[in-house]
Amino acid sequence: MTDNGRKMFNIILALLVSTAAWFFVVYNYDPMTNARYSGVPITYTGLDTLANRGYAVAEANYKNVEVTLQQRRVDTKNISSDDISVTADVSGLSTGDNTVSLRVVGPEGTQVIDSSVKTVTVDIQSATTQEIPISVEYAEKEEENDMPLIENKSVDTATVIATEEKLAEIDRVAAIIDQEDLDNQFKAMTLEIAPLDKEGNKVLNVVVYPETVSFRAAAGSTKEVSLQVPVKDDSDDSYERTYTAPQTVVIEGKKSRVSNLNSITAKEVDLAYYYEDSKIPLEFELPDGVFIAGGQEDKLVLSLKVVQKEEEKEDEGSEDN
Question: Which CATH class name applies to 32-126?
Fold first, then answer.
């Protein structure tokens, strides 16, 4: 080996030894450090027990706290506020304002040094119960018309228990799906049911039964297409029948099926046996995997106007004279 080769070897060896020594010191003798985490949410436990007693959390004077942890310096980059648990047990509280101590727990290997709040004041009020339909929706849509296609839902409504003020905040209860988890094939899923406000934020301190809903889901889509409504009137009587019908309809189904459809045709409507103004619900025979989107029941009707012909009215008047 040449002198230059020996020098290079010694340099590489020294680097390897120093790196190994650094890792040994850091992971075995790493000095402890204090780190402060803000915005740690307070979670209330015992809500079910409180609800069974006929009560619910109305409000509290704090929603978040700051927590100081003692931890190894090397672990700091791997710890966030989400790894810290701050809980308040409300199961045994009574109506009115109650002072509750907080329980703060950090990740394994850390020690809680301090928290900005040690106790919270929780207002407890009588609970109200309401049945709310369960929807299933995407957290975020890739396209405006995207939607999860759902079948075999285990339960259609949820029992929601909260104060009247909290219930007024709730716009819907829903199971939230990550769109990336779905494709054109149905798959079984079980998800938590959450009470949401109009902006899609979770309404806190609300009890929902059941806590989860099971179903089969696939990637779906909605589309507005033209609607053909065939009509038949073979009557030969003294009545004139005119009608109006919707020209479009919103359908839903698997993307692969919905994207290829531009129109659908309703079942034929026979007007011959109607003798007064009527609202006739339309019926459909749809392709497999295609459905009429909900919320259109009042729109998908044929509006029929029936009047007696003028000449027949005149004849009837002449006979009376």
Answer: mainly beta
